[in-house]
Amino acid sequence: MDPRISLVTLGVADVDRAVAFYRALGFPVERWGDAAFFELDGAWLSVFPREALAADAGVDPSPARFDGVTLAHNVASPEDVDAVLDELVAAGGDLTQPARETDWGGYSGYVADPDGHLWEVAWNPHADLTSP
Amino acid sequence: MDPRISLVTLGVADVDRAVAFYRALGFPVERWGDAAFFELDGAWLSVFPREALAADAGVDPSPARFDGVTLAHNVASPEDVDAVLDELVAAGGDLTQPARETDWGGYSGYVADPDGHLWEVAWNPHADLTSP
To answer: Is residue A108 part of a domain?
Structure first.
């Protein structure tokens, strides 16, 4: 696993409201479906409905169980997704969402760190976020 | 405000346990006091005791009020901290911690976005995290 955060996703109640806030700050926005992505220098930012983000990660959406934020580590192939998920589990992480083909055409899974902070490991055929 | 996340901080129950996890993944670690910092490509990662992180941000530490994660936006001077905090508030953010000199020798404040996700705006005289 390379030492890199590709994307930070914030779970939100209202994507349009969140987009208005970050757009007001001058963050360049790209929309895809229900999510919005902001192309930043270094790690990207995205916002996604909180309940849908919890479901994507395979976790209970209650605040006591889900902090509403995920960090993504993007890799270059589906095989790399499997390999990095194995690495995270070997380090003591908890696989909350086994790798699977996603509805957006990619391949990803999620692991919680020892405090429950979630890492998505993703292969995205539409956008290369594998380097800053 | 430049479109950039300088640092992602995860609130944790046990800094040593979190460091062991991220070190096992090969993340290069640097320790300063109670916190640990990992130098990543792009946005850095840090871990800090959850209660102390909430206190630093000026928010209630309960899971319903604090998601346990902060995003930092580092700038080049204390004056820039004030200017970017003003920008975040003008965009609709909520100032949870007015800018002040910190015990680590820097100058920072915090703003919550419309969903309560916290941004720290920081000037750090010890480490330049103002570019990826």
So the answer is: yes
